[in-house]
Amino acid sequence: MRGGGFVQIFKDFSNWSTVAVVPHVANANNKISRIFWIAIFLFVLGMFAYELYILIAKFFSYPATVNTEILFEKQIFPVVTVCNMNPYKYSVVKSNSAFSSVNTLMTTYSDATVGTFSTDKWGLYADNDETYDLDSRAADALVLEANLISDTAKVPALYTYADLIQDCSFAGIPCSESDFTKFIDPVYGACYSFNEDASLNYSVSREGIQFGLKLMLTVTQTKTNGNTDSLPTTKLAGARIGVNSRGSSPGLDSNGIDAGVGYESAVSVSLTQNVRAKKPYGTCVDREPDSSDYYKDFIYTLETCFNGCKQRDTIAKCQCANPRLALGSTDTACQPIKADLDCLQTLKGNQTSSTPNIDLLVECNCNPPCDESTYTPTVSLAQFPSTSYYVATSSTAGVGSCSSTNSKFSSKSDCQKWYNNNGMIIQVFLETLSYELYTETAGYTVSNVINDLGGQAGLWLGLSVISVVEMTGLMLVMGAFCVTGGAIKMAPDDDEIENDHRIKDVEDVKKEIDHLEKKHGEMESGSDGEVDDIENKGDEEKKKK
Amino acid sequence: QTVEYVPASINGPHGCANYGLCTDVTTTLVSSTNISVIYEYGCDPDNCYCLEGTTNGTEPCDTIEDQCGNNPCGDPKYFLCTSKIKSYSCSCKPGFTGNDCKSELGSACATSPCRSGATCESVDNSTAGYKCICKWNQMGENCEYDNFCANPQCQNNGNCSMVVDNANWICSCPPGWQGRRCETPDTVTTPPVWDGCYKYNFQSIGATTTKFSDNQLTVDKCNKYALQQSSDTVTMNYLTLCGGFCMVSEGPLCNDTSNWDDDCKKKCGGNNNEFCGVLNKRCIVYEAGTAEVDENACDNSTFCSADLGQGLCINWQSDFTDGYACICKPLWTGRNCENPVPEACTPSPCLNGTCVLNDQYNKFTCVCDDGFFGDKCQYSDICTSATCLYGGTCTELNNGDYKCDCLLQYFGKNCEVINRCDYGKPCNNGKCASTIDGITTNYTCTCDDGWTGTNCDTMIDFCIPNPCSYNSTCKPKFKGYDCTCITGLTGVNCSTIIDLCVPYKDSTGKWIKTPCNSKDDMANCTKGINTLTCSCGDKWTDTLCDLNILIKDVLMAIYGYVDLTMISLLNDLMQNPSQIKDMVPFITGLLTDSERSDLSWDAGDLFNWIAFEDQRLDLNRDIHKWNDVVLGNCFTFNHRDRNFTYRLRSSGRHGGIQAFMKTRQDEYAPWYDTAAINVFIHNRDDYVFSESVRYNAQPNAQSTMNIFMTRYTRLGGRYGKCVKKPSEVKNYYYPGAYTTDGCLRTCYQDRMKQECNCMDPRYPQAPGNVTSCQLSERSCVTVASEAAGDPSKWWDCVCPLPCSNQEYSVTWSKANFVNLPIICGKSSDVSTCKAHYIDQLMVSIVLPQLDFKIYAENPAMDFNKFLSQLGGQLGVLMGINLVTFIEVVFLLFGLFTLCCKKYGK
């Protein structure tokens, strides 16, 4: 009886189920038809399973989509950092006792360039055949030597604000030293950053060169008395310019802009913002772990991560840190001796070697930042000063204007010539107020999965939410049947059906039809029709119940 | 001691046959004794001068020319002709005789009875009978008489006849004529006599009288008319002339003479010397002339002894010789033939011969006996074989003397004189004077002007010494010379140098001072023989100062010599100097890669050092050198052909490339206007063209270039058209990966190959035997390129985008070197060191950030997404699923079955 009950339940369910093919299987007239419908059911079920697999695989691959937006709005002016390409005043280096080691290095290097070598602690004599190697070792030695001198002791040789910046204006409004933040760079000495302090609120509401920052700089490679004031290792006369967003590292050693003397360098910048997705859709991180974060004072960038990784590699191989990069609290800087310089040299690119040194991309595990602002500069040049310009400046600490009252020069043309050899104008402005915002978002979300799943299920099986409810109902019915032991009747018994007057009426009609068909000789077709009608009526009665 | 000359040959006079002469007689001593010296003279055969009519045969002058070619003797059947020197002799053939040799021996004509000129014919082959056929002016039985009537003698139809024993002739005149030849009329007329001038009256004169009119009226005509009108009974005695009318009458017609002087003197129309009067006014009256018959004087038979038979009387005009003339018989003479004349042979005048009488003329002819000659045979024979020498012909004269008809070149009475100057032309160009020196004749030549030598056969050479200047060619001529001047000289003696430094007008009509100044105004021209020397200014060179120094430098740099075919092209170039950089590839493109590479820079020429990741690179190992036609030698870091690939491992300056280089401006070609290092940044598989994007690095500065990479990937197949490999397009000539630029240039080269039969040398060539365009073909390339336009729009040029490529955008900045580099501060010569230092530059290639953009084409809808959306839409809108389609199929099948059953019923 129990088995019969389950069969009955399934039969009833299949008659009203909304799942495709199931009613056809239950109501098949013969065995061949039933097998056919079962095969169809299996096929569509298999296709649905395959499509479901594809959808799940696609979802768990976490594809990302980059949306590009072009925004037009008021922007905060970027941080502009300027440094003299000559880090220290040579006249002070030669006279100040604190720079005696640097002076010795400069003298030894000068002699080496003309072929006069002597045994020195930096090992300049070892590169007597190659100019590049000599220059490279001398530059590294200078960084190491300068690192030994404290910031306080360096002050006399560093360029002050008055030495470097003769004029400053932003959007036509004069600015002052208080708008700049000074820091000491291991390569370039004193550097000044405009709009770095959070308390400043310089912003731009209109684009163009009229609404940017204008600086007149003097690098003083030659003093007014004609003496050269550049270090022997300095090859370029000009300023190093960095443009970056607030809070970011200037990265002057790697990514600065060269601005030469005798020119006005117009630097137009355009902003690009990147917003990246985190796991699992992206790999961005906000910061490095504290244990490996060497640039805690700056916003995280790929460059800071790579620099930290390189510093760790340097410490591991040379047992000392490179002062060009940030030092940890427990790290010791390399000493300006031949051994350390040789070790630093071996860390430079040697890809053709059988044992190449560190590959930052492969070995550092650096991830891009989740939020990044990048300024792309475009430089154009003009001559400075023009032949008729008398170089007006409000600064009184520097050389002054090229007027007849200036006693530092014998004539106006001499003054203009000095500015042509030692001065420049820097103009930094926003090219346009519009900027591009790239936002990385999830490309395939749960909503997409549900949409695709609904489509596939609907196409292959005709499944819908109703079908799920039906399945649930079926489970409840089967559960109830098991609990009650089959006492619940789902349908009337055969005896009760026979006693029903409506059934009797149908049987009477059936007899009459059979009788008529006999007369016409169409017995078989008439029987088929009757059977169908009976079944249909039975279904209706069941539904009504 | 006597000297005797003896001829060496029987031929005279000099030994040549047929009396030939010798131009150079030789004498040979034969013997010499105390008494006499004997010389034998002769002639060398080569020196024989043949007389006219003789030619050389087996021996010189031994052949006499044929003179009988045209049968001068007559009919060859009867005559036998023998040739002689310039003449011939005639004789009768055997069996014939007579003057014409036509008479056979033994016949009647053998004795020549007929007169000379007549033809004798035998009669019936008898020995006695003959007949003489006379010539037209002969008559008589033996034609012995001359026929005087053979020529017309008589006039006015007179009849000529021989009379008085055929010794004379006479004309029988018709009536009205008289005279010996009937030339005189037989009447005597008197002229009209002028009578007077009278008034004309038509009523009495013109109406009734006999008259005729004539516009050319004369008195004689009127007189003749009167004679015609006269008859035996009526005689017209008066002539009345009124204008053009002639009126004749027996008596006078008018006698009115009033006022006649003013009107009568009108001249006749036919004769101005006569007067005819004026019609209607005046008439001239003449008395008519008369005509009388002249009497015949021969009616008297006593005249001319006609009655005696001694002559004949001829009627003549009465006023001439008494009206008659006499023709006497041969033996009679006198006015009336009354005097007898004896016969000519009586007595006989022939002294030594027989007298023959001519009856017609009563003349005699003497037939001399042998040994005598002359008219009367009074002279003995003189001519013998020795009389005339050397072939001369002896003729006896009537006066008893003789005459020798000498052959040519012989003179003298006996033909003994030879004039040496008459044969052989010893003096060709001069006057010859003959002298006699022994047996041999000699001569002296007086030469004409311009000739010299013994025989005046040598023309004086006026070219020795050479009168022409400057070694010009002297051609001698008669009495002078001609100088053929070498080019650049003129004058009779070529002594004048033609000045080539003269002004002239050029093709545009502008006057040019000298040929040297066509381009260079500062040039100086110096003349020379067929040349000129130009001293050029400082900007021009070459022979005529028409070659710009710059052009010469260019040609020397390119070819090593001045190529004349390129000068005009380069002159045009000077008007537009910017073209020269475009033209150089057409010249260097002809060189091989190795030759071009040698012309250009080496790595050591340009690089002081180059470093990557702060590590110095090896120039030979890490820098790949290759050559481009336009760019020259290029040096590529990380080239695709190198075994090792450098990877970018860190960002920033220390992770990029730095190079310290030299521009070497001191070795620049003169047509380059800027100095820089061109930097190309590209994917390693891309090929660099001369037009690829580049960045200039300036001397005396460091140029920093920041590069940003963008990668593009495209979908192929049904999503679009892209190319993965060069083999997917029709032609691709360049190494490396496929690029759109390379494909377009390949199309361009194919077009150039089609249009100009060569390829543009500014791009690499297709493999095979395709030639590069030369400089002369540059115009074809330019024209074809402009006509063709943009290759991307050609229908046969299909150049899709590559399926994957990378692009690099660059931003740059620049800073100058310091004014006093440390190496120059230590140098002894600061200015030279600085000048050398500012020629150098530094290039820095930096990747500021390691991230880059990828633009990837993704299908907007794939198959799975399509199924998902299709299922969703069908399910939402119609509740359809896959099984629904099967159910519909079953429904259709059922309906079909039902219809079949119904149809079956």
Describe this structure in words.
The complex is a heterodimer of chains A (545) and B (905). Chain A is an alpha+beta fold. Chain A has four domains: 65-87 and 158-280 and 370-443, Acid-sensing ion channels like domains (Acid-sensing ion channels like fold, Sandwich); 91-153, no CATH class; 285-367, Helix Hairpins (Orthogonal Bundle); 464-510, no CATH class. Helices cover 41% and strands 19% of the residues of chain A. In chain A, the strands form three sheets. In chain A, strands 1, 4, 5, 9, 12, 13, 14 and 15 form an eight-stranded mixed beta sheet that branches. In chain A, strands 6-7-3-10-11 form a five-stranded antiparallel beta sheet, with no helix packed on it. A two-stranded antiparallel sheet of chain A has the order 2-8. The model of chain A is unreliable at 522-538 (pLDDT under 50). The radius of gyration of chain B is 69 Å and the shape is elongated. The N and C termini of chain B lie far apart (185 Å). The mean pLDDT of chain B is 81. Chain B has 905 residues and is α+β, with helices and mostly antiparallel strands. The longest helix of chain B has 23 residues, at 882-904. At the A-B interface, α3, α5, α6, β10 and α9 of A face β54, β55, β58, β61 and β64 of B.
Give the total of domains of chain A. 4
Kindly provide the radius of gyration of chain B, computed on alpha-carbon positions and rounded to a whole number of angstroms.
Answer: 69 Å
The helicity of chain B comes to 10-25%
End-to-end Cα distance of chain A, whole Å, is 23 Å
CATH C-level category of the largest domain in chain A: Mainly Beta
Which structural class do the helices and strands of chain A define?
A: alpha+beta
What is the chains' assembly state? heterodimer
Beta-strand segment tally of chain B: 66
Give me the Rg of chain A, rounded.
43 Å
Outline of chain B: elongated
Biggest interface found: A-B, 78 and 65 residues
Task: Return residue spans of chain A where pLDDT drops below 50 for at least 5 consecutive residues.
Answer: 522-538
Distance separating the two termini of chain B: 185 Å
Gross morphology of chain A: elongated
Beta-strand percentage range of chain B:
25-35%
Number of helices of chain B: 14
Pfam family, one (chain A): ASC
Keywords (chain A): Cell membrane, Disulfide bond, Glycoprotein, Ion channel, Ion transport, Membrane, Sodium, Sodium channel, Sodium transport, Transmembrane, Transmembrane helix, Transport
Protein name (chain A): Degenerin-like protein asic-2
Catalytic activity (chain A): Na(+)(in) = Na(+)(out)
